[in-house]
């Protein structure tokens, strides 16, 4: 009964608009008192700082800064033009452009929300103008932006790797094939809808010029290749790769300003202004992420004291569940939690509790990590509180309820892929194993 009241307190606080990190922290402290562990509260400051004193976490603000700077510097438009050049002439071409743009952007920002914000204002009006239903265009944009945190670099995977002590390089390599498969699944659904609803293809006149488009896009495409290759082959750490990404981004933004025939002084001022705006945004996002880590450290400490992971492992063994059955169950719990919780909060609260039992049962930590990151990221496009749905609804002007209904077919397609990845671990593990990152 006491734990039910604690849950009701947390739910009411969230619905009233209190930041979820504050809610989780307050609920965790109250839980210490309720569970008769108040004597351990004095150790919390040490536990909190030990939780966030992880070198890998430094990569997060740097990757966020690189993504923010590239978005503000016009790289998004360049990559969309490249996608239009490659697949825009096909029937339902703008749908394919939507998915392809997310694949390109995934190698830069590593954030679903950032990709959603970057592409919605450009692609949704363009698709509506060509005869696509606006809610379909917005839903496809939401579904495709989930690719961002799966194809490396991925902020969510950095989070997971640091929390669970799993190689970030192996997680990055493991995310490549699932991310590309998600793009294939979404393109397949777009192919069917394009023929059913007779969506148009792009005309030759509407396609961007080949030479200038490729010239501007190639430097941007080299960034994810350089970062991922450096991490996967052990040349740099994720944090060093993030620093390289920021440096290349600043050079690239300056080069684009020069290509637009600006003077050196104007290009420098533009780059400085964009960097300043990006730094401000990065500080805000990083602060919110570390607030979540603070709250999660409190909650995680309590779960350890109560031996919840051990109890779950004991229950799995006594229930006679095999590893696959348990992981399917745990994935269902994470998906439901992702529907109402922030991805970072759900990850740091649920993964340390649910995943150790799966690994103890024989699951590969990299496979479990990639699937868990994808699972929780799907919460961003899952009603009722999908973060990407809210961003896209606001940016596109599509009613949130209409968008929530329109996203359901896409969500079903992605859930099919999620189940396939759970049942066939080799889809995820083949590339990391071929690269020698896991046995």
From TrEMBL:
Pfam families: DctM (PF06808). It is a multi-pass membrane protein. One of its GO terms (cellular component) is plasma membrane. The keyword ATP-binding does not apply. One of its GO terms (molecular function) is transmembrane transporter activity. InterPro entries: DctM, TRAP_DctM. Signal peptide: none annotated. Residues 8-427 form the TRAP C4-dicarboxylate transport system permease DctM subunit domain. It comes from the Bacteria. Keywords: Cell inner membrane, Cell membrane, Membrane, Transmembrane, Transmembrane helix, Transport. The chain crosses the membrane at residues 47-66, 103-124, 136-162, 168-192, 213-235, 241-259, 283-306, 326-354, 366-392, 404-424. It is found in: Cell inner membrane. Belongs to the TRAP transporter large permease family. The complex comprises the extracytoplasmic solute receptor protein and the two transmembrane proteins. Part of the tripartite ATP-independent periplasmic (TRAP) transport system. This is TRAP transporter large permease protein. It comes from Aliishimia ponticola. The lineage of its organism: Bacteria, Pseudomonadati, Pseudomonadota, Alphaproteobacteria, Rhodobacterales.
């Amino acid at each position: 009964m006491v734990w039910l009241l604690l849950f009701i307190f947390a739910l009411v606080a969230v619905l009233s608009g209190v930041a979820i990190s504050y809610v989780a922290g307050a609920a965790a402290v109250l839980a210490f008192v309720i569970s008769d562990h108040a004597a351990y509260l004095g150790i919390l400051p040490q536990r909190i700082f030990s939780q966030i004193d992880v070198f890998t976490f430094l990569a997060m603000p740097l990757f966020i800064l690189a993504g923010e700077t590239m978005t503000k510097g016009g790289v998004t438009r360049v990559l969309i033009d490249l996608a239009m050049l490659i697949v825009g002439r096909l029937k339902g071409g703008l749908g394919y452009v939507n998915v392809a743009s997310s694949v390109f952007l995934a190698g830069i920002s590593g954030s679903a929300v950032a990709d959603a914000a970057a592409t919605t204002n450009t692609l949704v009006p363009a698709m509506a103008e060509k005869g696509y239903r606006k809610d379909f265009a917005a839903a496809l944009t939401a579904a495709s932006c989930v690719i961002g945190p799966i194809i490396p670099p991925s902020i969510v995977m950095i989070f997971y790797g640091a929390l669970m002590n799993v190689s970030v390089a192996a997680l990055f390599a493991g995310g490549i094939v699932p991310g590309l498969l998600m793009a294939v699944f979404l393109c397949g659904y777009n192919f069917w809808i394009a023929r059913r609803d007779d969506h148009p293809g792009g005309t030759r006149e509407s396609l961007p010029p080949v030479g200038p488009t490729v010239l501007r896009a190639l430097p941007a495409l080299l960034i994810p290749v350089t970062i991922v290759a450096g991490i996967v082959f052990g040349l740099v750490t994720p944090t060093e790769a993030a620093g390289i990404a920021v440096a290349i981004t600043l050079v690239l933004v300056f080069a684009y300003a020069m290509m637009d025939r600006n003077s050196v002084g104007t290009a420098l001022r533009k780059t400085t202004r964009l960097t300043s705006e990006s730094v401000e945004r990065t500080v805000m996002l990083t602060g919110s992420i570390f607030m979540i880590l603070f709250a999660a450290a409190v909650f995680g400490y309590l779960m350890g004291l109560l031996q919840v992971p051990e109890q779950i492992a004991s229950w799995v063994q006594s229930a006679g569940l095999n590893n696959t059955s348990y992981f399917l169950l745990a994935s269902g719990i994470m998906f439901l939690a992702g529907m109402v919780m922030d991805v970072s909060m759900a990850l740091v609260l649920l993964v340390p509790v649910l995943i150790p039992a799966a690994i103890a049962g024989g699951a590969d930590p990299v496979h479990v990590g990639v699937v868990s990151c994808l699972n929780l990221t799907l919460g961003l496009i899952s009603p009722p509180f999908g973060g990407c749905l809210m961003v896209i609804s606001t940016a596109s002007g599509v009613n949130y309820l209409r968008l929530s209904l329109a996203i359901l077919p896409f969500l079903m397609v992605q859930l099919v892929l999620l189940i396939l990845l759970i049942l066939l671990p080799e889809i995820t593990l083949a590339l990391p194993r071929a690269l020698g990152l896991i046995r």
